[in-house]
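From the pipeline queue, job 12 of 40. The input is one protein chain; the requested action is below.

Action: predict structure.
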Amino acid sequence: MTTAHRASGEARPGGRTARTRQAVLAAVFEELGHGGPAALSMERVAQRSGIHLATLYRRWRCAEGLVCDLLNGLSADVPLPDTGTLPGDLRALARSIGAFYADERIRSLIEAMVSAAARDPQAATVLRDFFSERLTLAGQMVVRAVERGELPPDADPETVMAALGAPFYYRILIARGPVDMALAESTATAVWVAARAGAYRRTEPHNSAPHDGR
């Protein structure tokens, strides 16, 4: 796979563009299941999807663009829960993440993007932005928990959510083990206990305002 760029295959939400995008991303998913990320190529996706190769290059530019677009679309299907309590929200989200990564093809998506990010600054930016956006969205669970008085006022939403996701990516990328519901349950419990104890406090930047001499 080559240099990554942001996907542009979603220029219009309906009509022929939407059908093209659906066919292409379905082909990417099938290719990942067939040969893994190392074998993914624009040519193979064009052949499997029936979409002209020039169209793929014009809209997605490279294989990483296809992978990123697919990952964005699939991850949008992971619901952000609102159970009324943070322990319930953490458990529900952890279970959804566990179910999401139970599919070997989805694990291949993450592996492909991490591999590309290690050698390509543009791919690294795509991956960083992807996770940053999702941490911000999921952090609303922590904001609600602070408002309910479940967590200290200075709890950092993104740090809490990063702690929830970290064990899954360690299991996938480092330990190379299965992602299961036992991991989801233990992770949700550990993050709740740590967050309640104040382990994920926000670090305020140093106040650099000029001194008035008083």
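Job complete. The radius of gyration is 20 Å.
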